[in-house]
Amino acid sequence: MPMIEVKNIRKSFGSNTVFDDFSVNFDQSGVTVILGPSGTGKSTLLRCINGLETIDAGDILVDSLSVKEKRNLREIRLACGMVFQQTTLFPHLDVLENLVISPVKIQKMDRKEAVDKARALLDKVGLGGREHSKHNELSGGEQQRIAIARAMMMNPRALLLDEITSALDPEMTAEVLRILEKLAGDGVVMLAVTHEISFAQRVADRVIFLEKGNLVADASVDDFFSGIKSNNERIARFLQNISQG
């Protein structure tokens, strides 16, 4: 059974219909990169999966739990950690407290256990020794690595990554992508909205391409960047524009 099942959903914002009878499944493992032009529903899809946007019709199941049932949202959000384009670190807390606050308060994790886990994750993301740094003392790439570590503190089964490198320069982007490669190697399920084609080619198992709320392509990374790219003029043009941009 897929970990995440998106079943015939409809989602509109006023008169703008983003999805209409849209379906897709995500399995229990692997990295899926979600591509497509701006405004086509990529970020909205992640937010619907995590219950941050309500769907108008259809259903989304995460480990068989429906996002339409409010009582399920806590468990769904624990299962699907989300990292946003703009970091949402608490500016009044240092790095360590940003990492331990949710596990201690929400999951009732022992504080010492949470601190030990936070330090191990900081080492993993290359920021060991920065436990007492504040938000304004971190670069954009460091803030995103902290945000990834904070999501991992909750032991999610999946990470939903929404354009997390779009505001970063190339060097900072490379830092963050190296961390995601490491986590992918550890078996963390990832759904990543990104324009980083090199990340998709190096790390992804699967690529889906959305346009105007429709699933235009759904293929293994090898098939996408060989056969589909060659045979679909719209996708070829999109990839060319991205590489030139």
Write a structural description:
Helix content is 40%, strand content 25%. The chain contains nine helices and ten strands. The chain is globular and about 50 Å long. Helix 4 packs across helix 5 (140-152) and helix 5 runs parallel beside helix 6. The model has no long low-confidence stretch (mean pLDDT 92). The strands form two sheets. The protein has a six-stranded mixed sheet with strand order 6-7-8-3-9-10, sandwiched between helices. A four-stranded antiparallel sheet has the order 2-1-4-5, with helices on one face. It has 245 residues and is of the alpha/beta class.
Query: In what range is the share of β-strand residues?
Result: 15-25%
Approximate shape: globular
The number of helical segments is 9
Give me the strand/helix succession.
Answer: EEEHEEHEHHHEHEHEEHH
Report mean pLDDT, rounded to a whole number.
92
The beta-strand count equals 10
Give the structure's gist in a few sentences.
The protein is globular. It is an alpha/beta fold and 245 residues long. The protein has helices at 42-49, 73-79, 95-105, 111-124, 140-152, 170-185, 197-203, 221-231, 233-244, and strands at 4-13, 16-26, 31-35, 57-62, 65-66, 80-83, 158-162, 189-193, 206-211, 214-220.
